[in-house]
Amino acid sequence: MARKRRTTPAAKVRALATKMLVGFRPFRAWWIKRRFAVQLSLVRGDHRPSGDHRSIIHFSVNKAATQFVKSILFRCASNNDLVPVRLHEMAFVMDFPFLDELTEAEMAPYRQIFRPRGYLYSVFGGMIAGLDLDPFLIVLMVRDPRDVLVSEYFSMAFSHQPPPDMAKYRQFMSLRQTAAAGGIDRYVLTNCERIRATYDRYARALLDRPNVHLTRYETMVADFPKWLGDLIEFCDLRIDDTTMRQLLREGSRPSEGEDSNRHRRQVNPGEFRRKLANESMAILNEELKDVLRIFNYS
Fold it and tell me: Pairing mode, if any, of strands 212-216 and 137-142?
């Protein structure tokens, strides 16, 4: 039986915002032009950076605190003459491709968006094909793929805001209905291969590169000050005391307990052990054994 979704005030606000962006085309066009001015200018090829800091690209996986880490990097950007670039966010709300879903040939027209100095590109949920990564600083943040699958299920079935682009909205709602109707064990087993492929591509393209900082969601949860310090040091970022204190307060904020309808539903590692049937865990452990070994989750 499909689980009934409890509508929270925050969910109502998100739903209203989505309806506005989907239904009112003049408002939507104005909002997109204002929100994504930098991105649209980069696509046209006429944007100019404000500084010469080595550009940073942030890769991650869904449900690995992607929005929180992106916010940290963006807040540090202004002190370091880095221009924040929200390409994935722009693709979510309009007819623009998710670049990490393109083949190398399909990616060719968009390579000029990535410039080696002065920009901070965050966040991508998969590897980008055909991009020369040597000139960039690369941040790769991962999470135990079994926890990723569990957290992704709750996000897809209950909490994630639907995209306002009409075609993507219909696709998302179809996936939401399938996830909610099938239940958590079916979802994680159905999507295991997709998650494994994402980690495999990261392993082949990014591991053992000197310009890549591999960090883990679990490290962030266990020791946020050290995790933050290592991130800032690798990215060669200057950060003022006020911002540092604010980030440390936010990173040390305790969990408020579990709520399926919140975007930040559960932060503790090892959740898959509490949510999945033993048979499902055994299958995941077998199917993901190479990924678990390579990323030290075995």
Answer: parallel
